[in-house]
Amino acid sequence: MKSVVILSGGLDSTTLLYDVVANGDETYALSFNYGQRHSCELKCAVTSCQKLSVPHVIVDLGQVGKELLQGSALTSDIDVPEGSYEAESMKLTVVPNRNMIMLSLATGYAVSIKADGVFYGAHAGDHAIYPDCRKEFVKAMQKVTKLCDWHQVELFAPYLDMDKGDIVMRGVMDLGVPYEDTWTCYKGLTRACGKCGSCTERLEAFEKAGIKDPIAYDQ
Amino acid sequence: MKSVVILSGGLDSTTLLYDVVANGDETYALSFNYGQRHSCELKCAVTSCQKLSVPHVIVDLGQVGKELLQGSALTSDIDVPEGSYEAESMKLTVVPNRNMIMLSLATGYAVSIKADGVFYGAHAGDHAIYPDCRKEFVKAMQKVTKLCDWHQVELFAPYLDMDKGDIVMRGVMDLGVPYEDTWTCYKGLTRACGKCGSCTERLEAFEKAGIKDPIAYDQ
Fold it and tell me: What is the CATH number of domain A2-209?
């Protein structure tokens, strides 16, 4: 089938890209610049698409983000919180309705190129923090995605019941994902901070998988 | 309540803006430039917001439209079809997933400014042509909109059971909408063509309402 993968350049969506390509799909990748501090993740997205010879479009939502989507530490001057991914403070990193926006644009793109499916990497670890990664949200999006055009597009979130540790294991064992090509840290400095919620979760995932994280950390 | 109205500058959404303001809501208007030929509708949107003293944001999706949303006569070199709004050829004017994209951005904006509701002007006349104006689409969007953030936003489409004639009647009788401030023609020339599906539908609506359309036509 013909598939569009939403690719942030992070660990989950990069694994998903390798997964969809390994499945033999005619794959197209779509990334978003929404004014995130850690836009260096987009360089990783470019690298992965080059290695896999996947056509890649990066959509610039910078102006939209500035005008419409304020109040998140990922897109404004609010400090990125440190510590556990589950903590209340991590809710500061919610970008208003980010996933519905990205999914709606990916579906529009899928309709344009007559693709059959849109893939995104929501996973079980995200549910507590991000309302738009919850199962009920994904299920409701799957329903509305089928209805939005006469050309039917299906929305897939194959990692919805997996945690990040499961994803790393799948990526290393089954897909050979080079995780040095992924970016996770929310701070967007030259090296990953090792302390923000996103780094903490990544480190825990590699620990759970019993695999050494190939990227360098500040701490 | 605090409300965001999606305002194209056309007849339906302008009536809706007057309706929400008349209801006493703290109203914010949101328009989209998505590379439509008839971007003159946006000038009408500006005029209405100025008259009603409603804060207004116009989001530029031009680059996004170019890169992602091709294949519609409204955004590309395909000729705008003439004749009845119901004809098969009018499907050429579907912009891929336009409504989900606009609704998702409007909801992101609503979450950002802590608004309670998002209003859009889908109506009964659109159902046959635009998959993303169908009742089942709107109902599915209403569900997913409630789930997308911890701050709950509700999606309202109060004209879903009305046709354009009903809307004109409401606008003239109850709300005093100055319809000379609205733009409907898909061709986007200096005067409305009077022949495209959109003009045809507008003229029929005024005829049904028994009211003279205040704008000038080429034909």
Answer: 3.40.50.620
